[in-house]
Amino acid sequence: MVKSNELDKRYGHLKSYQYAKQVVNGEIISGKYIILACKKFMSDLEKYNDSEFEWEFKVEVAEVITDFQKLFKFADGMLQGKPMELAPFQEFILHNLFAWKHKEEGYNRYSKAYIQVARKNGKSMLLGYIGLFKALFTVYAQVFVVATKKDQAAIVMREIKKMLDGAPHVKDKFKIYSGLHMKCSVTDAQLGPLSSDANTLDGLGVDLGVVDEYGAHPNSDLYNVILTSQMYKPDAQICIITTAYPNTLTSPAYAERCMVMDMFDGKIPYNERYFGMIYELDKEDIEDETENGWKNPDLWIKANPLLAYFPVVIDKMKNDYQDGMANPEKMSAFMTKNLNIWLIGDGSASYMDYREWQKCIQEDEIDLQGREVYVGVDMSKSTDLCGVSIVSKDDYENLLIKSKAFLPQDTIIQKETSDKLPYSSYLTTKKDWLHATEGKYVDQTEVENYIRSIEELYNCRIKAIVFDSWGALHLMSSLSEDYEVIDCKMTYKNFSPAIKRFREKIYDNEAIIENNPILNFCVGNAVTKSDLQENILLDKKKSSNRIDLLVSTIIAYSEIMNEEVEDDFGDYFMV
Fold first, then answer.
1. What is the sign, positive or negative, of the torsion defined by CA atoms of 74, 62, 19, 214?
2. In the chain, what is the greatest distance between 2 CA atoms, to the nearest angstrom?
3. Domain containing 325: what range?
């Protein structure tokens, strides 16, 4: 074991070493996976005399990285015009990417990197620096900034141009073409933006692919294009950087994040060529709803490492947090972009904090015996997911919620791919969650048969069946012969109160929800739209995936709410 003072002598002058040591010693408040990354860095440094360890940390390369920044100035922000000085955590990332080398062959140790950090932490500048360094020190390098759209890919390229504008002695080594493409005259390296809307992605041989905001990518297609282009380039690198997003079910970045965590946790073998830095609050912080948990500004530094050097920024974050507390539609944006917390849904107008929903879920079957129930039905498209929900109240006025989905049998495989849910498994093991009707369309007769069986199945009494009448007129007509059938008008004026009040019931933990992953999936997907009077509706067009079971649940609840209002109205005039 190498003694600490020996490491101090070899590496003590490097910011990367100082940063790692401060994190490990608890001098910088950090999340679990940053601490583990720094511990690994320190542990690997101790192996510099280990002949069996195939990697070595090149101090001279780290020093070049540090000296190189002195050629530039900050282009904007609080330090505009001042000489560039990267934050210690940024140098830590750069030193790991470029200073670790294979002892015999000399190529970069890390061929892949996943960096997750909240916004306004110098992400674009860091990426720009990474791109410039690779281009100036790698002959014939192909460096691409990769994003889903050309405009997003151009953000980092514009950052590079701003850096060059403030460093004339470096700028004269580059020729800038239209579309922010650049070529280095020293190395013949090329830099440029690359997006899925480019004319062609064929024929690439990428030396450095910077995948920007990977959380916004709908799939891993662009990532795979870069990765396959590097097959015969051992020195090539792909660097993913992203903030958190509200799409854990579909995001390739979330899957990548989980893989990095599993490596650190020892759940999968550690890939020695994969570098990971996940700046986010710890699981226990996120689950803690008290002032000691994620709401505590002292913990926000875990997702915002620049706060250690610019504490003044915390005031702006506190204001954003207060805005989110007053407006649920803003809170998910704060949690994903400022605190780097992954959520399920669309952060621009997420209907509900999914963690609040989870608190109300129970694994046991809900007992509806002897109770009056409302049944909500959302038929949606005949080829798509349809929902039937049963809603009642227990003796303590808590909502009791049970839902079932219906899908056409011929679309099951397609829906499994698009929704990322194991519908086929549910059909055999969890028949209470899902029923498949024969053919390409949902058979309304089978939906009707299920509704008519509810009273016998659960020993309850149906008080009313509530529909969104679109696409369900025949079903409503047939059921109206034996039940009270109510048409729920899904307009801002009529439906907004139920949507808002239902969310309040969940937030107040006044609901017991029988677990159904399909219903949970719908809740996570739901986003809202609003009118000028701040009435809201669930927006099926903007929701990332299905929301039908949530709609059927709120449709059923709307009649319970109306009943409660009528009771309150009657009590008010009681003498």
1. positive
2. 93
3. 285-345
